[in-house]
Amino acid sequence: MSRLIRIVIVFVLVVSGGVFAQDTSLPSKKTLYQRARETLMQSLMQGDMERAGQAIDYLKENVENGAPFTIAEEYIADMKVGRYVDGIRIYADICRYNLDTTYFGSQKNRASVDDGLTLYLFHDLIPFTKHVADSLLAVVESSNIEQEYKDLYRVHLYSEQVFISRPLTIGPRNVVVLDVKDTSYAEEFIQVANSFIEAYPHSEHAVYLKEQTVPFLQKHLDLYREFRKDPFARKYYSGGLAFYASKWTGFMTGDATDYLDYKLGSTFIFELQLQMWRIILGYYVSGGVDTQLKDHYSDPDYSWCECYESQNSYGFTLGFDVFDRRFIKVAPFIGIGGGSLMDDVYKYGVIYSFGLNLDVPVVVTKPLFPGALSVGVHLRLKYMAQMGLMSNKAYVYAVENPYKDEIDFLPRDLYSSAERRKLGDTFTQMFSIGLGFFLW
């Protein structure tokens, strides 16, 4: 009995092993696709175009099933077997995806693999020079296909000599941005593109060439022509960041001078400016006016002492670039800020300012290309007028503080009535010269 069982087990194993061996002998899809790619390569190398065409058809029919056959491989393979119309249609669709911003392509993603076929198809096309493009075009020109396809092929072959697509990520989206990589053949491309547009105005390719591609390239060429003529042409009335340090002279007038003597000390103006197009936003800090009470209002016991205190002011400015050329820039401005006199005893309510800046470039680096950063040192000539209403902070303190003798160094008539709380208006005129560092 045990012998019979052993015989049955051996029989089952032999039969099942044969079945499994038969199953594993069936080629997988991956193997079939790889054989088709090998067949295509061998057929192209041997010049068997009929068999190569069959391999192409098989791979195309199974692309949706995962057959590794990219759209670029299909285009090159079609051209090699003489299917020029099919190949040019594919190639034009690939190029349109880059040249037409309203077109998102008609081809779906495909599987790809790096093997001998990939190397064989592309090894003569890299790098893709003008000589390579002309050799491809010569083959098509000698064929008997319609002239429209020949002209379309020429346009797109030349477009690859001029344009390059750069990937760009905007948030969650990945987009392709068209850029000009070489202008050597730009004029030739514009010529053949315009000829195609004129000859085939109803072609879908003529539409985007006329409305997008040619104007885009023409604008780029005009920009570089302008740049070669004047590298700073696009810099005028543009943005930048600057810091200026200046020394000034001037004088003060107004009601406050009835109470205060002043003299100019170590004057300065520091400015930080940001320009956007013609609009200039700035912040400044200035100082250098030293003031003291006039003898008539000061304590007689200290009449021998010159007790000058410094003035400072600060504020924001809004300017407008009215004239900007290579050797001079003119920008009037208005501003608002604050400040104080005599160690913050006399306080400005609000300082209003206006003036004019004249900037003369001393040293400026030439930009490497249109839109590139330029660094410069500017000589600044500045006029600024400041107007403000001065208030006596000591008056407020004297009213609220019963120990007025603590501020007896101030004359009583300065805070004897509410009217004396205001010293009156001040008007300071400043003329400065300085240097600035400018990122342009």
Percent of residues in β-strands: 25-35%
Largest sheet: 8 strands, antiparallel, barrel
Mean pLDDT: 82
- Beta strand count: 11
Number of domains: 2
Kindly report the spatial arrangement of strands forming the biggest sheet: 3-4-5-6-8-9-10-11
Question: Roughly how many Å apart are the termini?
Answer: 101 Å
Elements, N to C (H/E): HHHHHHHHEEHHEEEEEEEEHE
General form: elongated
Number of helices: 11
| Cα gyration radius (Å) | 41 Å
Q: How does the helix and strand content classify structurally?
A: alpha+beta
Verbal overview:
- By secondary structure, the chain is α+β, with helices and mostly antiparallel strands.
- The protein has two domains: 29-229, no CATH class; 240-439, Porin, CATH 2.40.160.
- It contains eleven helices and eleven strands.
- The protein has helices at residues 2-24, 29-46, 49-61, 71-80, 84-99, 116-122, 130-141, 147-162, 186-199, 204-229, 393-400, and strands spanning 163-170, 173-180, 240-254, 260-276, 279-293, 309-320, 323-325, 328-341, 346-364, 375-392, 422-439.
- The chain has an eight-stranded antiparallel β-barrel. Strands 1-2 form a two-stranded antiparallel ribbon.
- A hairpin with a 2-residue loop joins β7 and β8.
- It is elongated, with a radius of gyration of 41 Å.
- The model is unreliable at 1-24, 394-400 and 402-422 (pLDDT under 50).
Identify the notable features of this structure and list them briefly.
eight-stranded antiparallel beta barrel; about 35% helix; 11 strands; alpha+beta; about 450 residues; two-stranded antiparallel sheet; disordered N terminus; single chain
